[in-house]
Amino acid sequence: MERTGIVENVTDLVQTKVSSPQSPKQLSDTETYSKNILGPVYFELSNLRVFGKAGLPEDKIVAPSQSPYIVASNEEFCVSVDITFNESPLTALLMCLGTRMTVDFAFEGLGGRAPEKDWAVTDITVKDDFSYTLTFKSTPDDAQLLPGLYAIAGVVAIGPVENKCTTPILGYGYIAKQLLQVYPA
Q1: Where residue 61 sits, what CATH number does that domain have?
Q2: pTM listed for this prediction
């Protein structure tokens, strides 16, 4: 059975009269901190905002206030939305991989002369950041918004990641209900 210190048949060696076979029952144990280690991935849209950037009027007798929702055609305005992701391990990985976020801001003209226009804003997620604000800045003239009233909405697509391990779109969403009036400058 033995040849210069090398055992040729281990089974014969274990099942000798000197030793008996081990019990077929073995004990084992493991522990994990969660049954769902990676966790879900989701996001929330909030704070759709629109506002003109003109300051307060110089002559408070003629114009006592300035509405941020009524802008001249040459006045800069901003439209923005907040995107907040949950903080699961899988979400953290996707933020680190660089996930694309795109918001299509839709300007729906209310009335015969106000056209419909869409403008997209894209950003990429970064490691350890779960909250983002995507903003579109322009003047009505540059954004091709004619004088009139506009209802504004944001349509969002999250994904894919921006690397060689690309994934499909991870989620979609929308947020609506802001108004902007444009008047000729």
Answers
A1: 2.60.40.10
A2: 0.76
